[in-house]
Fold these 2 entries.
Entry 1:
Amino acid sequence: MEFRTKIDIQKAEFTIEPQSNLLFLGSCFADQIGKKFLRNAFNTTINPIGTLYNPASIYTYLQNNDVDKHYDIAFITLGTTHIYRLKSNGKIVTNCQKRPANLFQEERLSLEECTTYLHKIHDILRKNNEHIRIIYTVSPIRYAKYGFHESQISKATLLMAVEKIIEETECTYFPAYEIMLDELRDYRFWAQDMLHPTQQAVDYIWECIANTYFSKQTLQFLEEWKPIREALTHKPFNPESPEYKQFLADAMRRKQQFENKWLSR
């Protein structure tokens, strides 16, 4: 018998390779998944100016900052439809940066506005690199401060906007939201605040991403990197001992050999 709802994810038409340059933009879930790639030796950039929660903020960041043309794949993680405008000039901010709440006016983007911003995000990224692959996800992290009903309305609007953009462009969607809310619906997969996924849940979603996007070569890359990573992160009892210094030197040598083999383009 099957005691959970398994999300059926089709193998992607493209692959993430060891040499792929990856960009992660969006909510704190983008940070969590991006750090998994970073920890596993991928060329990874994660939210250069901080967390971006909504489509308008992501677009504003891309519009106001030079985005390198070398990115092969962009993961865009949408968290909410709520935006904040500075009362002084009416501009949407990318991040409130813990400034006083009375400086901002809060609004909620409509479905049409969300879809328009996703198209603008697509156009900027494709202008910089016409071959870039754009993967949208909706963050499973709930926003209790808006109320759970309002949080669900926000997520539903984002999901509908993503559906429109993938119908009208070559963008694709990865169902992290559905995995968390259906496959991992048990509370043991939610952190103590009951809003964020546990590390175990993030690791499982990472495995789903690997099954969807990684080539055989990339899986071999990860297999070779794992013992090197474990050696480099080992916590010695005596870091000044000659034995540990030799152990670390050997790990650094293997890391250099690994990079020469896999990461030189």
Entry 2:
Amino acid sequence: MTALAAPSPAPKAPQSTRYLKTCCDECGWTARVTRKHLEGRSLRCPDEYCDGRLEQVR
């Protein structure tokens, strides 16, 4: 009697990041934030001399 080999497990899909890349529309400063921080909010650039807003980079 021949033993049957167990089926090999399916390869795991790569894990995606939970952070979204954002960039200041004025100075180009880059940050990564969670989706929760972007929902319904307008994030300001942390540079005190810049008056820009952080927008998600596609």
